[in-house]
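Task card 7
Instruction: Convert sequence to structure tokens.
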Amino acid sequence: MPQMPEDVRTAIERLMIDYCYNVDALEDMDRFLSIFTEDAVTDMTAIGLPLMKDRGELKAFFEGVFETMSHHFHFISNFRPESWDGEVGIMQAYVIGMGHSKDGNTVAVQVRYRMECIETADGWKCRHYTITPMMPLPGSLDEIHGDR
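Output:
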């Protein structure tokens, strides 16, 4: 496997950071979705949330998130290239995510993000996004998002 070029690594890291900033803003769905390809798969099943098979399903899920949450905070670090084949770059990072719902419930998770990314005419996009728990999950995650 060839080493991931520094410009690719930087572009994917920025994409992962943009994801965190966009989800923390809890607004502007178009900006949030802009980092994903139209056919992007998002797999949150390891944390008890759905598998989404395209941007439409991702939008439907996150519209509910944006509606029910009053605050989000994601801290991303420990970026690590997983693979690079000359076209597809895969990067992992550790994330501490916190949220406060409008009904007063709170959640904090320690997870790993994995993004499989490609360069498009519109820049780098994520085509497969996975979340995996790094620590036991709190029950409040299911209370806040489990019905989606």
